[in-house]
Write a sequence for this structure.
């Protein structure tokens, strides 16, 4: 295949004839090698940098006094409980006297997102009535021990999509676990 | 009958253009490549719609999967400094050779008493699946807390040194960023435990490593 002729004609006197060389070099091997290397680099590269979700947790200091705690208006507080098998229970207001009773739903755009969007609107109207138009819904996410990490990220993702005024991850109370058990979500 | 003359055509094609393209692609991949680091634990992260990228450098990663926790410290110097501090706390001496190996090792997940054994292994053996069982993080033997704490302290010291020598601007000082890379199927209590460890040392802001998806889920 290779056609690179290099030799002269011995040079035994006579006319020096410049030999017509074939300028074409066989590139097959070179291309083979190049593609081999391309394959190697494609397979070992991580092209996409991983995405990330910034998360800020509330300060947890046992010695800190709780005097500077700002009261959250209960009618604007939505609590989301995450049970087992990707099922969710939410209510508005206090646990004992909810303004909207516990409602069961699922993850995704046809489940919790519809409720969240409705409640975000409701929160805005309630806050405007209070004379605080820059405030809105406050969401407390409480995952039970049966929830998975994916559930938590999904819920935080819903927060990023529906954009309530404030959201936080809280610890679930025994009463709420009982409620989940009663409704068969635990 | 007249002979049908089959014209003898050359079977060779000009490879020049193909060669050019191949090498162009090759240069592109070499320049953009960051080699995939071998990980002791491969996890499948959950997806989210948030478009923020993880900072490229200086992020310590806590990998959680199958109830075991792994820790990745960024940077050679930081790894060495962290191990020095850990060695001081737990009174486990390490040789210079072991420091060198550790500073070249990305992530790890073994209790401290198995670390020496791990450092003796080669890179491929070390990252064999199931070999590393995770760093203990229960309340009795909370080594994960110490690793995180010492890594943050070491980061602080190293940055201060570099600022004092004039290598960095004082504004470059920041606390070590921490990212949690959890498996999607991981149970919530394990993740909660790790978040609690971070909160206990007043690390309230961190990243969750996620994949990408659109809003229609």
């Amino acid at each position: 295949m290779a056609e690179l002729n290099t030799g002269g004609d011995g040079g035994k006197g006579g006319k020096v004839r410049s030999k017509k060389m074939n300028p074409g070099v066989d590139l097959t091997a070179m291309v083979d090698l190049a593609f081999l290397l391309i394959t190697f680099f494609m397979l070992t590269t991580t092209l996409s940098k991983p995405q990330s979700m910034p998360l800020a947790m509330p300060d947890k200091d046992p010695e800190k006094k709780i005097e500077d705690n700002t009261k959250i208006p209960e009618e604007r507080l939505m609590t989301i409980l995450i049970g087992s098998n990707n099922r969710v229970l939410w209510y508005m207001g206090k646990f004992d006297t909810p303004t909207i009773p516990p409602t069961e739903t699922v993850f995704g755009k046809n489940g919790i997102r519809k409720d969240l969007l409705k409640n975000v609107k409701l929160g805005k109207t309630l806050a405007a009535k209070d004379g605080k138009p820059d405030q809105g819904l406050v969401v407390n996410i409480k995952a039970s021990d049966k929830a998975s990490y994916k559930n938590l990220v999904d819920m935080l993702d819903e927060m990023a999509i529906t954009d309530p005024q404030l959201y936080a991850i809280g610890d679930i109370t025994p009463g709420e676990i009982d409620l989940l058990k009663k409704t068969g979500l635990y | 009958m007249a002979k049908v003359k089959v014209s003898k055509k050359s079977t060779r094609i000009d490879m020049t253009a193909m060669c050019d393209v191949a090498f162009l692609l090759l240069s592109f991949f070499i320049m953009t490549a960051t080699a995939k680091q071998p990980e002791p634990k491969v996890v499948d992260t959950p997806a989210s719609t948030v478009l923020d990228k993880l900072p490229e450098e200086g992020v310590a990663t806590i990998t959680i999967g199958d109830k075991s926790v792994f820790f990745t410290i960024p940077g050679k110097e930081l790894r060495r400094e962290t191990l020095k501090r850990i060695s001081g706390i737990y009174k486990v001496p390490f040789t210079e050779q072991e420091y060198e190996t550790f500073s070249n090792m990305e992530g790890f997940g073994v209790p401290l008493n198995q670390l020496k054994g791990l450092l003796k292994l080669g890179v491929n053996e070390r990252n064999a699946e199931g070999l590393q069982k995770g760093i203990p993080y229960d309340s009795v033997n909370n080594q994960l807390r110490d690793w995180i704490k010492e890594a943050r302290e070491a980061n602080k010291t190293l940055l201060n040194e570099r600022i004092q020598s004039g290598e960095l601007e004082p504004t470059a000082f920041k606390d070590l960023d921490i990212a949690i890379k959890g498996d999607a199927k991981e149970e919530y209590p394990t993740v909660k435990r790790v978040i609690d460890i971070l909160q206990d040392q007043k690390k309230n802001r961190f990243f969750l490593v996620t994949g990408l998806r659109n809003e229609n889920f």
